[in-house]
Each structure stands twice: as C-alpha cells, then as structure tokens.
C-alpha cells in the first residue's frame, strides 16, 4: 500500500506540473492586456509600462511562470485585478458556502440514489426497475440550471415554501441554513443522484449473484438482512469511488447552481471574475478546482484499495 | 459499407436503439427544416406582441419580452445546439483519437508523454476546463465549441488507446503486421474499423454532453451571444420573467432536456446492444 501510494504521488508530479503550466498559459496567452483593465481610463504608455513592471509582464514568459509558481507555493496567489483583495482570501472566504452547498447536494443525492438503486436491483426487470432506469437517463439529461429554475418557480415563487437565495451559515442557524440550501442542493444533486443510482443498481446486481448471498438465502435469512446487511455494504464500494470524485468536483457543479440561486460561493465568484476579466481570480479558482479533483482521484484510489483487499496494485 | 449494414441490422433488431435513433433523426430533421417550418422570424422584434401566453393566435408557444415568437426561436435553437454538438464531438474525436492511436500504437516514451498530457487534461473538471478555455479565448459560440471539444479530447484519447492496446495483441493484427503491412495500412484498414463500436457509443454520449455543456456556457453568458436564438441563453433571459411568464424559461429548458435525453438514450441503448457483457 505504501509503495502504491508513493508510486501514485510520483505519477501525480508531472501531471501537477502540466496542470500549473496549463493554468498559467490559459490566462497569459489570452487576448487583452490586464494593465488596460486595471488602469481603466488612464491608459498612458508610462502607466501601462509601470503596471507591466509591477506584475512582471515585461519579463519572458518562462520567467513569469517560475515567479508565478514560486508565489503560488508560498501562498501568494496575487491580488484581484478589480477588488485588489488577495486571491487566496477571496477564494477561502467563499469556500464554506460552496462546500456547504456541495455536501448537502451530495447527501441529497445519496438519500435518493441508494434506496432507489437497491430497489431497482432487487426487483430487476420490474416496472420499478424500468422506471428507475428512465429516471437515471433523465437525471443526467436535464441541465441543473433548468432544474433550479423550475424549483424556484414551483417551490419558491408559486408555493412560497422555500426562500429564493440567501446564504445562512450552518453553524449560525442550522435549520434556517437547511431551509435556504435545500433548493440549490436539490438542483445540484439531481444529476449526481442519477449517476449514483445507476452505480448502486449495477453493483448491487453483481453482488446479489455472489455465492455468499446465495448461502445467506439458503440459511433462511430475511430479505432485509440479505439485502441491507450482507449485500449493500459490498455493493457500495464502487459508489464510494464515484462519490469521492463528486466531492472533488464540487466547485464544477457549483458554478452554475450558484449563479442561478445567487449563492455567494466560489462558483459565482468564477463567473463574475470571467466577466470582469479578473484573470488572477479565475486562475486561482481553476487551480483550486483542478487540485481538489486530482486529490479526490488519489484519495478514491487509496480508499478503494483499502476497502477491497482483492485489488492488487503490484 | 459493411459497417453501415451492421448498423442498420442493429437498429432493426434492437427496439430501444431504433426508438432512440428515430428520436435523434427527428431532431436533426427539425434542425434542417426549421427555416421552412418556423412560423415567424426568430429574431424579429414586435413590441406590440410581447409576453403573449402559449396557445395565443399565431403564436402556439407564446412570445418573449420583445414579442419574438417562442416556437420559432426554439426551432431555430436546434440549429445552434446540434451543430455545436457535431463540431465539439469532431474536435474531441479527431484530436483525442489521433493521440490515442499514436499513444497505443507507438507505446514507449510517446505513450508515456501523451498520456501525461491527457492526465493533465483529465485533472480539470470538465465544465471548469471549458469555462477556463472560454475565459481565455473570450465568450462566443465558436469558442464555446472549441472549449467543449477540448474537454472531450481526453475521453477519446483514453478510449482509442485502450482499444488499440487490446487489438494489438490479437492474432489477425500480428499476422497482418508480419505479412509486411505498413503501420498506416494496419491502422486504417484493420484497427480503425474494429474500434467503431465503442466509438459510436461514445459519440452519442459525448453529443449529449456537448449540447448540455454548450447550453450551460450560453446560460452563463459565455456561449452564443444575442440575438442568436440559443436554448441556454433563452433560459437565462427567461429566468428574469419567472413570476409572470414562466414558459419563457420552461420551453427552451424542455427542448434541451429532450435533445440531451435522446442522445443519452441512444448512447445507452447502443452500449447495451453492442457490449457482449451486457447482452444477457
């Protein structure tokens, strides 16, 4: 396991290097001069040259990359071009709201997916199974921003059951927080629920065909015991994999949902920054998103190896 | 020719594939015929007719805030979404397929380097990568297509590489090579025709993803720009009038969902029909 961990970390190094190069180049090769955005109306050649010097834009590209990487490693992610706030602070200030939304969406997706996926697997081929399979394809086909808009229209505007937008931190008022996060979490988690349901179903079907399950049936165990005690635990191993990746991809999903619900998280910050051409913030968010995704990938592989001892990484 | 016959046979024998293929063909037909079947000009502004509800005389799905006919805009919207899917999938397929072919066939250092590049692309969550590319290139439909295509590259690179590695071990490939076939001939005549099944499945699924991703970018204001009748952008502007005129957002939302559902259904049913492990 230790050797596998080391090998995975070593393999991650070149990928991490390429990711940083990609993020750096994406923004530095894009059209438009950041100095012009910072200066606004005062665009004298002297002022532009001064900004270039301050930002290091007058140096060769590879030197700029090394300086940028050095700063990133030291926690200096630069300052927002529009608000002048340090990028690292701008992102960390918004992360709790995004995290709260992402985790609630994940919990919602699992609450729906595991029971429905299990029922579909146990009653394979039945109407319930066919229905679940149709719902699965629909779940990944409906855009989450559309789900969000329909939820706002039905549950917020028409029935006034839920508030529209407005973030309340969980530790400030848990009940009020859940009331506010419910709609965005349902919108964000529906696609995840569909994917998790598909994984639970297929994994459960496979586990239910194993000999030890047949033995449990033969011993006269109740179906509840067979399904929930013997089968479900093992069937959830592949689901753990996909859930880990979904945690890593929280920022990705949040981009759209936060925009629909005006949720004050990192996703909305990303969209606002793109429109303001605030490249330093965009760069920071893309970097955080990529590294959380990579770390989640690594963690999932390790958890998978730990959960299923049959897996050999020799 | 042989592949086309096999595909027709597949559609004939699998009802689910046939239904999904029919649905996708119908959507393409709508996109082709929309200039003929649209009752009105999709960008013609008529302030006197604004906010007409569905089933109004002359406007089956009503009109938007500028009095533009919603049915015509939704029909024309298919002419944006479907070509976007086509171009994005083509970018992903050709660039990713090429990387996968070279990586799988050449092996060694080329494989190692190319796969690290693919790993780096996979390290970005899909939508974040698309947004980053559009942020760099600037908002617009063309850049959105490129961005969604770039997101699809690693998927095809991994898929094609895996199939090439598998095929390379088979007797007929070794026999062809020992008979003196050039690498180009081997790839074009023997490898590519034998990897069509998984690629066809992936193309259907990628098309669904591409339409969804383009709609998302347009919804965020990073894809198609006004006055192009684009579904994502129509939902965005319709969301402002949700209290009194919800259909402005709901109708284009249904159009996206049905289109993506059709492609996903086709991909899923093709996978079930073509994968021998799933046939039982």
Question: Could you explain how this protein is built, in words?
Answer:
The complex is a heterodimer of chains A (314) and B (280). Chain A is mostly helical and 314 residues long. Chain A contains 13 helices and no strands. In chain A, helix 5 packs antiparallel against helix 6 and helix 6 crosses helix 8. The termini of chain A are close together. The model of chain A has no long low-confidence stretch (mean pLDDT 87). With 280 residues, chain B is mostly helical. In chain B, helix 3 packs parallel to helix 11. The radius of gyration of chain B is 22 Å and the shape is elongated. Classes of the chains: A mainly alpha (314), B mainly alpha (280). The interface between A and B is large, with 49 and 44 residues.
Order of helices and strands of chain A: HHHHHHHHHHHHH
Question: Which word captures the global form of chain A?
Answer: globular
Class of secondary structure makeup of chain B: mainly alpha
SSE pattern of chain B, N- to C-terminal: HHHHHHHHHHH
What's the layout of helices and strands?
The complex is a heterodimer of chains A (314) and B (280).
Chain A: H1 2-28, H2 34-39, H3 45-55, H4 61-73, H5 87-122, H6 127-141, H7 144-158, H8 174-208, H9 211-218, H10 223-248, H11 250-260, H12 266-275, H13 279-307
Chain B: H1 2-13, H2 15-37, H3 70-106, H4 108-122, H5 126-137, H6 141-168, H7 171-178, H8 183-194, H9 196-219, H10 231-238, H11 247-274
Helix pairs in contact in B: 1-2, 2-3, 2-11, 3-4, 3-6, 3-9, 3-11, 4-6, 5-6, 6-9, 9-10, 9-11, 10-11
């Amino acid at each position: 396991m230790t050797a596998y961990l080391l090998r995975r970390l070593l393999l991650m190094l070149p990928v991490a290097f390429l990711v940083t190069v990609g993020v750096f180049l994406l923004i530095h090769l894009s059209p438009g001069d950041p100095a012009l955005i910072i200066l606004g109306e005062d665009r004298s050649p002297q002022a532009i040259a001064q900004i270039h010097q301050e930002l290091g834009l007058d140096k060769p590209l590879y030197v700029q990359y090394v300086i940028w990487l050095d700063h990133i490693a030291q926690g200096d992610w630069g300052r927002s071009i529009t608000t002048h706030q340090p990028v690292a602070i701008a992102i960390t200030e918004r992360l709790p709201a995004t995290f709260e939304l992402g985790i609630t969406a994940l919990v919602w997706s699992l609450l729906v997916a595991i029971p429905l996926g299990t029922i579909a697997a146990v009653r394979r081929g039945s109407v319930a199974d066919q229905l679940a399979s149709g719902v699965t394809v629909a779940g990944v086909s409906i855009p989450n921003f559309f789900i969000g808009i329909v939820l706002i229209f039905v549950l917020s505007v028409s029935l006034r059951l839920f508030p529209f937008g407005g973030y309340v931190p969980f530790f400030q008022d848990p009940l009020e927080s859940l009331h506010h996060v419910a709609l965005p979490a349902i919108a964000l988690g529906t696609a995840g629920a569909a994917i998790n349901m598909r994984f639970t179903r297929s994994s459960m079907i496979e586990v239910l065909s194993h000999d030890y399950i047949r033995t449990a049936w033969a011993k006269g165990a109740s179906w509840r015991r067979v399904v929930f005690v013997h089968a479900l635990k093992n069937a959830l191993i592949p689901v753990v994999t996909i859930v880990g990746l979904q945690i890593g991809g929280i920022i990705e999903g949040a981009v759209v949902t936060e925009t629909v619900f005006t949720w004050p998280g990192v996703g909305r910050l990303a969209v606002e920054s793109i429109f303001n051409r605030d490249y330093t913030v965009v760069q920071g968010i893309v970097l955080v998103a990529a590294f959380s995704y990579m770390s989640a990938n690594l963690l999932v592989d390790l958890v998978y190896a730990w959960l299923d001892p049959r897996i050999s990484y020799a | 020719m042989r592949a086309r016959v096999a595909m027709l046979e597949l559609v004939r024998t699998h009802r689910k594939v046939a239904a999904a293929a029919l649905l996708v063909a119908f959507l393409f037909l709508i996109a082709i015929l929309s200039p003929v079947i649209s009752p009105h000009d999709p960008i013609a502004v008529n302030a006197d007719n604004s906010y007409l509800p569905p089933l109004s005389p002359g406007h089956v799905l009503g009109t938007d805030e500028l009095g533009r006919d919603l049915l015509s805009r939704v029909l024309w919207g298919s002419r944006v979404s479907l070509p976007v899917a086509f171009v994005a999938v083509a970018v992903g397929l050709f660039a990713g397929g090429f990387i996968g072919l070279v990586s799988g066939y050449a092996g060694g250092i080329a494989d190692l380097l190319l796969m690290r590049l693919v790993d780096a692309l996979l390290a970005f969550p899909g939508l974040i990568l698309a947004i980053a590319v559009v942020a760099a290139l600037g908002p617009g439909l063309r850049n959105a297509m490129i961005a969604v295509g770039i997101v699809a590259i690693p998927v095809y690179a991994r898929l094609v590489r895996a199939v090439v590695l598998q095929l390379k071990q088979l007797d007929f490939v070794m026999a062809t090579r020992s008979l003196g076939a050039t690498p180009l001939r081997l790839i074009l005549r023997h490898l590519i025709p034998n990897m069509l099944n998984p690629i066809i499945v992936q193309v259907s699924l990628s098309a669904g993803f591409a339409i969804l991703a383009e709609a998302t970018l347009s919804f965020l204001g990073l894809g198609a720009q006004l006055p192009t009748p684009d579904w994502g952008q129509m939902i965005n502007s319709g969301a402002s009038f949700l209290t009194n005129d919800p259909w402005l957002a709901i109708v284009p939302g249904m159009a996206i969902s049905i289109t993506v559902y059709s492609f996903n259904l086709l991909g899923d049913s093709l996978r079930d029909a073509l994968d021998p492990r799933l046939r039982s």
